[in-house]
C-alpha cells in the first residue's frame, strides 16, 4: 500500500531530475494554439534545454530548468504563464483530460471539444477538486474507438451525436446526454475526492477504492470497437506528424504545417488540422 501522495510534476511543483527541473503543462484534449507553442519554444530556449517534450497523456514538458531549492525562479514561472497554458495555479495538476485528437475535425460521433472545455472549467472552479491526485485521468472518446483501450479514472464514449456512456474506473456507468456530460464527470470526480479522504495512503485512482463509486451497468451495444492509435501522415481532417521520442525541437517545429491550432496526441505526435 502506498503511504505518500503522488508526485506528478507541474510548474509550481517541478520534478528534480539529473538535468535540472522538469515541469509539465497540461493541455485539455491536447489542444495547443500555435501562438502558445511558439511562445513555449521561446521560454524553453531561455529557461530550459530548448525543446518541448510530448507525453503519452498529450501533455507537454520542459526539461533542464534551473533549480532554485526545488522550485522555479519567479521569472521562469511568469514566462510559462505568458504562454496561456497555465490558466489555474491551484488546479494545474488535475487538468488531465485526454480526448480523441480528431474530434470536431473529422470522423467520430460527436464533437467533444465543448464537453472537455466545460469539464476543465468545472474542475478549475471547484476548490475541493484541486486536491485530486495528479495521476487522476479523464478519457473522452468521441465514438471512433481510438481511446477505448486507455485506462481511465472517469470518462465517456460517445454513442451518438447526443448520447454517451460513462466510464467509472474499470466499469461502465450510465448512458447520459452529452449536454450533461461535463457536469456528470465533475460530479463523479467530486464523489471520488470525498471517498478517498486526505491521508497519505489515500487512493490515487477510482479502481483503488474499496467499493463502487457509481452504479455499474452493462456495456451499451452501440460502443465501438477499439480502433488503435492514429496513424502518422495524412489522415482525415489533417496530418498526424510524428515526433520521434516525443521530442519537439525548434527545427521540427519549423517543419510543422501552418495552422492556428494543433493537437498534441497521446502517440508522440502532433495532429495538424487541414
From TrEMBL:
InterPro entries, sorted: NIR_SIR_4Fe-4S, NiRdtase/SiRdtase_haem-b_fer, Nit/Sulf_reduc_fer-like_dom_sf, NO2/SO3_Rdtase_4Fe4S_sf
SUPFAM superfamilies according to UniProt:
Nitrite and sulphite reductase 4Fe-4S domain-like, Nitrite/Sulfite reductase N-terminal domain-like
Keyword terms of this UniProt record: 4Fe-4S, Heme, Iron, Iron-sulfur, Metal-binding, Oxidoreductase
Q: Which Gene3D superfamilies match?
A: Sulfite Reductase Hemoprotein, domain 1, Sulfite Reductase Hemoprotein,Domain 2
Keyword check for Iron: yes
Q: Which residue range or ranges hold the Nitrite/Sulfite reductase ferredoxin-like domain?
A: 19-66
Among PANTHER family, the record links this protein to: BLR3264 PROTEIN, FERREDOXIN--NITRITE REDUCTASE, CHLOROPLASTIC
- Record-given protein name: Nitrite reductase
Amino acid at each position: 500500500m502506498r503511504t505518500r501522495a503522488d508526485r506528478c510534476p507541474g510548474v509550481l511543483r517541478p520534478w528534480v531530475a539529473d538535468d535540472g527541473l522538469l515541469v509539465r503543462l497540461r493541455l485539455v484534449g491536447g489542444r495547443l494554439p500555435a501562438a502558445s507553442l511558439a511562445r513555449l519554444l521561446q521560454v524553453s530556449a531561455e529557461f530550459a534545454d530548448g525543446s518541448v517534450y510530448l507525453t503519452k497523456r498529450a501533455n507537454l514538458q520542459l526539461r533542464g530548468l534551473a533549480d532554485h531549492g526545488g522550485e522555479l525562479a519567479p521569472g521562469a514561472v511568469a514566462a510559462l504563464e505568458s504562454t496561456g497554458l497555465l490558466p489555474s495555479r491551484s488546479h494545474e495538476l488535475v487538468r488531465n483530460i485526454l480526448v480523441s485528437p480528431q474530434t470536431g475535425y473529422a470522423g467520430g460521433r460527436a464533437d467533444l471539444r465543448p464537453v472537455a472545455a466545460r469539464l476543465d472549467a468545472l474542475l478549475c472552479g471547484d476548490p475541493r477538486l484541486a486536491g485530486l491526485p495528479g495521476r487522476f485521468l479523464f478519457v473522452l472518446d468521441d465514438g471512433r474507438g481510438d481511446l477505448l483501450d486507455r485506462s481511465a479514472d472517469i470518462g465517456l464514449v460517445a454513442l451518438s451525436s447526443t448520447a454517451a456512456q460513462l466510464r467509472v474506473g474499470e466499469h461502465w456507468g450510465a448512458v447520459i446526454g452529452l449536454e450533461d456530460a461535463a457536469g456528470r464527470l465533475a460530479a463523479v470526480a467530486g464523489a471520488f475526492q470525498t471517498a478517498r479522504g486526505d491521508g497519505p495512503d489515500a487512493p490515487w485512482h477510482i479502481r483503488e477504492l474499496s467499493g463502487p463509486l457509481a452504479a455499474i451497468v452493462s456495456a451499451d451495444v452501440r460502443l465501438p470497437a477499439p480502433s488503435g492509435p492514429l496513424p502518422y501522415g495524412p489522415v482525415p481532417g489533417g496530418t498526424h506528424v510524428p515526433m520521434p521520442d516525443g521530442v519537439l525541437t525548434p527545427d521540427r517545429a519549423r517543419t510543422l504545417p501552418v495552422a492556428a491550432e494543433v493537437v498534441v496526441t497521446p502517440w508522440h505526435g502532433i495532429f495538424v488540422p487541414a
